[in-house]
Amino acid sequence: MKIAFYGGTYVRNKDGAVRSMYQLVSSLLADGHEVMVWSPDVSEGGCGGEQVNRMPSVPIPLYTDYRLGFYSASTSRQLDAFGPDIIHISTPDIIGYNFLKYGLKHGLPVGSVYHTDFPSYLKYYRLGFTEPLVWAYLRKFYNACDVVFVPTQDMKHRLEENGVTTVGIWSRGIDAILFNPSSRSESLRRSWGAEDRMVIAYAGRFVWYKDIRVVMEVYDRFMKGPDASKVTFVMIGSGPEEEELKRRMPGAVFPGYLSGRELSEAYASSDLFLFPSTTESFGNVVLEAFASGLPAVVSDEGGCKELVGEAEAGFIEPAGETDAFYRSCTRLIHDRALYLEQRKRALAYAESRSWPVINGALIARYRDLITARRGDG
C-alpha cells in the first residue's frame, strides 16, 4: 500500500497522539508499505523510512506550541506524484478537510483517527455554546470518510451519539522497551527529595482542560494533612499554566517537558499516577504509567476510565471531585498490599498491549478498504 498521511503535528514525542502516529507509521513501514507524511509541524528524522513534507504554517495564537498550516496547489501536485492508495487523516482541520476532498475527488478510500476530543475542550475556554457547530462539522467530516478510528468503546459511543456512522476501534499500544519498571532511578528520587516518600506523578500539558485544578487541590489536601511528609508531587510537562501551578504547589517538583529515556525514568521513579483529566479520548499517559508499574487515579469522564476499569489497576473517581481523588490516593499510600496488587495488575495489562498486534488490525482494515474500492471500480 501507498499511504498519504496527514497530521497537524508530526514532532516525535510531542504528545500521546503523535507517539501513536509514529508507532503506526513504524508498523506500516515494517510491514513493507510506503508512507508519505504531510504536516505543518515536523521534527527531523521521522521514523527513518517515510518521506516527510513540511507544510507552510504560522503559530496558533495563545497555543504557540502548535501551528496552523496551509494546503496549497503544491500539496496536490505532491499527492499526484506519490499516487496514494489510501488517505490517512489524523487531524480534522482545514488541511485535513482538503486531504479528504482530494481523496473523494480521486476515488480513494479515506481513513481518519479521533485522536483528540476537541469538543470537550470548549467549556474550559467558555465556548461551550459552539459545541453543536463543532459537532456539525465533525459529523460531516467523519461521515465522508470510509472509517474514523477511535481508541475506546466510550469514544465510539460518544461519536455515534453525535451522529457519526463510520466509527471503528483502533486502540493504543505501549513501547514496553522504553516504558518499564527497570528504568527506576534512586538517584533521581534523591534529587526530588523523595527517598522515603511516595511519589505522586502527573504527566501532561499544564492547561485547564486537563483538570489540573483537581491536582492542585489534592496537593493542598496532602500538604495540610497528616501525610505531608510522606508524599512528593512530581509534575511532568509544560504549558501555559505552569507558573500558576508552581505558585500553588511550591513543594512540588517540576522537571519540565520530558521525552524518551528521561520520561520513562521519571515514570518508573514515581509510585502513583494522578490524572483527573476529563477530555482524553484514550489516555496514553495512563498506559505509560501502567507499563512503569504505577496504579492510576482517574476521572469517570473520558477515555482513561476504560483503561483503569479493564486493568483494575487504580481508582475511577467522579470528575472534579477533589475529595474522592484525595481519598483514593491516601488509600493506595496506606494500604501496601492493595498498592502492590494494583501495581501487579497495571504491569500485566500493559504487557498485553503490543503495538504490532494493535496496528496490524488497522493495517488489515486499510487493505480491505483498498481492495473493496478497486473491486467497485
From TrEMBL:
Domain (Glycosyltransferase subfamily 4-like N-terminal) spans: 15-175
Signal sequence span is: none
Residue span(s) of domain Glycosyl transferase family: 187-349
**Gene3D superfamilies in UniProt:** Glycogen Phosphorylase B
Q: Which CDD domains match?
A: GT4-like
Q: Fetch the InterPro entries from UniProt.
A: Glyco_trans_1, Glyco_trans_4-like_N, Glycosyltransferase_grp1
Protein name per the record: Glycosyltransferase family 1 protein
Query: What does the organism's lineage look like at the top?
Result: Bacteria, Pseudomonadati, Chlorobiota, Chlorobiia, Chlorobiales
